[in-house]
Design a protein that fits this description.
The protein is α+β, with helices and mostly antiparallel strands and about 270 residues long. The protein folds into two domains: about 170 residues, Sandwich (Jelly Rolls); about 80 residues, Arc Repressor Mutant, subunit A (Orthogonal Bundle), CATH 1.10.10.10. Helices cover about 35% and strands about 15% of the residues. A four-stranded antiparallel β-sheet has the order 1-8-3-6. Strand 4 and strand 5 form a beta hairpin. Helix 4 crosses helix 5 and helix 7 crosses helix 8. The longest helix is centred in the middle third of the chain and has 24 residues. It is elongated, with a radius of gyration of 18 Å. The chain starts with 6 loop residues before the first helix and ends with a helix.
Length: about 270
C-alpha cells in the first residue's frame, strides 16, 4: 500500500498536510484522452491465475506462481464508507481491489485527516505490512464507493518475494511510484483552490477503472468528501466547482457525477 514511504519522510509529509480537511490531489496513473481503458477484471467470477497476470505487481510471475498466490484466497465486499483496512491492525494478507474506489488515509497528531492516495480496480494494497510476521497496517483504507477485493494470504506472497527477484523488483517499482505520487500531492497542497479541485477530480477519474483517462466520468460522491479530497473547506470547494461549471471545464453527468470536459486548465497548471 502506501506503507513503503519511510517513517521520516512520511512524518515530514504528514506534518505539512495539516488542516480541517487534508487530502492529496494528484494522479497516480494519469492518462489524458487515451488509450482506451483496459477491460476491467470480472468481479462475479472467481479470481483465476490468469487474472493476476493483468496486475503489474504480478505480471512477470509464471502461471504456477500465480496459482500459489491464490492458495486459500477469499473475496470480500464492502459498502461505501466502510473501512477495508484499519490502521494498526495486524496484517493477515494483501488485497487486490477488483471494483470500487478507496482512499488511503491516516491522522496527524492534532487529529487532522491526511489522505495519502486513491486506489481503484486492479490496485494492490496492504503489501508492505505483510513483509514481516506480525506486521501492522500503517494507514486506513476507506471505501468511497462499494468495493470488491480479493485477499491474498501473506505466506505465499512472502515466500515468492524471498525467492523471485522479479517480484521484488516489481514491488520496489510500485513503492517508488507511490512515493513519487505522494511527493506530487505534497507540492500541490500549496496551489490555489482551483488547482486543488482540478487535481483531485483528475485523480478520481483516473482511478475509476484500470487505465482510465482524466476525462472519465467520476461517480457521485458527497460534497463533503470532495472537499476533503481537495484539502479545502466545503464552501470553498462548492464555489470552485460552480465556477468550473460556468466555464465549461466540468459538466454534470446523468447519474449525478462529474466529468472533466476541458483539460486545458489542467495542462496550464502542469497537472497532466
Amino acid at each position: 500500500m502506501f506503507h513503503g514511504v519511510d517513517a521520516a519522510c512520511e512524518a515530514t509529509l504528514l506534518t505539512t498536510f495539516r488542516g480541517p480537511h487534508l487530502r492529496h490531489s494528484a494522479p497516480t496513473r494519469r492518462t489524458i484522452e487515451g488509450p482506451a481503458p483496459a477491460a476491467p477484471m470480472p468481479t462475479s467470477a472467481p479470481l483465476q491465475p490468469a487474472d493476476l497476470a493483468q496486475v503489474p505487481l504480478f505480471a512477470d510471475l509464471s502461471p504456477e506462481q500465480h496459482q500459489r498466490l491464490l492458495e486459500q484466497h477469499r473475496t470480500v465486499s464492502f459498502q461505501a464508507d466502510q473501512q477495508l483496512v484499519l490502521e494498526q491492525d495486524e496484517s493477515q494478507g494483501l488485497f487486490l481491489l477488483r471494483s470500487g474506489l478507496t482512499k488511503v488515509r491516516t491522522f496527524t497528531a492534532d487529529g487532522s485527516e491526511a489522505v495519502l492516495g486513491l486506489l481503484g480496480p486492479g490496485d494492490v494494497l496492504g503489501e508492505m505490512a505483510v513483509l514481516e510476521m506480525g506486521g501492522r497496517r500503517t494507514a486506513d483504507v476507506v471505501c468511497l464507493l462499494a468495493c470488491t477485493a480479493v485477499m491474498l494470504r501473506a505466506g505465499p506472497f512472502r515466500g515468492l518475494l524471498a525467492s523471485e527477484p522479479r517480484l521484488a523488483l516489481a514491488l520496489a517499482r510500485l513503492e517508488a511510484n507511490r512515493l513519487q505520487n505522494l511527493n506530487r500531492r505534497f507540492c500541490q497542497q500549496s496551489g490555489d483552490a482551483t488547482t486543488r479541485v482540478l487535481a483531485a477530480l483528475a485523480d478520481l477519474a483516473c482511478h475509476t477503472a484500470t487505465g482510465a483517462a482524466a476525462t472519465a466520468p467520476i461517480p457521485p460522491l458527497p460534497q463533503s468528501e470532495l472537499a476533503i479530497l481537495c484539502g479545502l473547506a466545503r464552501e470553498t470547494t462548492s464555489r470552485t466547482l460552480s465556477k468550473l461549471r460556468q466555464k465549461g471545464t466540468i459538466i454534470d453527468t446523468e447519474d449525478g457525477g462529474i466529468k472533466l470536459a476541458d483539460l486545458t486548465p489542467l495542462r496550464r497548471r502542469g497537472l497532466l
